[in-house]
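This part of the workshop introduces the protein records we will be handling. A record pairs a protein's sequence with a compact description of its fold. Backbone structure tokens are a discrete shorthand for how the chain folds in space. The question running through the whole workshop is how a given chain folds. The record below serves as our worked example for the rest of this section.
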Amino acid sequence: MPLLKRWVRSVRVECLDHLLILNEAHLRRVLEEYIIYFNSRRPHQGILQDAPVDLDPPDLDLPIRCRKVLGGVIRDYYRAAA
């Protein structure tokens, strides 16, 4: 149960508290995008600031870029080819 409470708190604080949800379909789209971000990009303290879904290690010589998640509510920084 504590893990579910943590996830609900994360989704509320990082996502839902900043958006006006219009209807069920909108809520589903928002949650789908947040879940993808949460599992693939968001750092997690319990696993040494890594994401649950492993990504290839970044090439440290590449420039840092910013990606807007949920229309800019969350900003995700990553290294990408120029």
